[in-house]
């Protein structure tokens, strides 16, 4: 078969999960994308996605071979249309940071009457890792600066700074449109974003959720790879904008926080890039 076969994966087939080897050699088109649906924990070590047009399930998008599709069918217990399947294989649209893909295969759970636990954020990795006692947290925007930590009396929670992290495959963009201007986000692109890596405990999450507007569905927690001191760290926490807009100029006080937090910490080249992009995109010159 010569036509491209696209599949959206959201559980054990994702990067670093137990069945990722089944996608070895496949082309990954996006690591942070979504499709309409709702996610549950089956309690058997894998999640189940069910249809729901009003919610989102996050996962990864791959271009695979016909042989790999057959392997996935076996894994998911799919025997064909109108058969007694564990998962059905349906076609849906998948949305990345930049484009929409149609005609993507998605495996959905057949037994919707089974009692299962809803997975918050629609993200299996969040479900797996957010309860860890310790996490690495990659801050690329205003959380590089500690002024608001101190004002909120939580600065003691963010004292353990591990170093400067580099998130390859991302670009910084101001895609969150707030009442007073844009807020920072990272989107998948052939670029690198630098930021501050903290070692945090679960105690920090309630503050970060409030600050990032997680309950209001402004940002969502996500897990990415970062490079730090020449070593790759996997499944590092960060926050991504959910509904991305065209870039909007940030307010000056917010841009100043980013530059102040970055100065002397990220590479000189990246710091100059932050300033240059503020000017090129928005004609902003921000003093710190």
Short description:
This protein is α+β, with helices and mostly antiparallel strands and 288 residues long. The chain has helices at 66-76, 124-129, 147-151, 203-212, 252-262, 268-282, and strands at residues 5-9, 27-36, 38-41, 47-50, 56-64, 87-95, 100-109, 117-118, 134-139, 161-178, 181-201, 219-228, 231-241.
Q: At the first level of CATH, what is the class of the largest domain?
A: Alpha Beta
What is the CATH topology of the largest domain? Hypothetical upf0131 protein ytfp
Question: What are the low-pLDDT stretches, counting only 5+ consecutive residues below 50?
Answer: none
User: Helix and strand succession?
Assistant: EEEEEHEEEHEHEEHEEHH
CATH superfamily heading of the largest domain: Gamma-glutamyl cyclotransferase-like
**Level-2 CATH architecture of the largest domain:** Roll
State the helicity in percent bands.
Answer: 10-25%
Query: Which class of secondary structure composition applies to the elements?
Result: alpha+beta
Strand order of the largest sheet: 2-5-1-7-6
**Average pLDDT figure:** 97
Shape by Cα distribution: elongated
Domains (count)? 2
Rg, please?
Answer: 20 Å
Number of β-strand runs? 13
Strand-residue fraction? 35-45%
Task: Describe, in plain words, how this protein is organized in 3D.
By secondary structure, the chain is of the alpha+beta class. The protein folds into two domains: 5-127, Gamma-glutamyl cyclotransferase-like (Hypothetical upf0131 protein ytfp); 132-282, Roll (Hypothetical upf0131 protein ytfp), CATH 3.10.490.10. The protein has six helices and 13 strands. β10 (161-178) and β11 (181-201) form a beta hairpin. The longest helix is centred in the C-terminal third of the chain and has 15 residues, at 268-282. The radius of gyration is 20 Å and the shape is elongated. The mean pLDDT is 97. GO terms for molecular function: gamma-glutamylaminecyclotransferase activity. The active site is at residue 76.
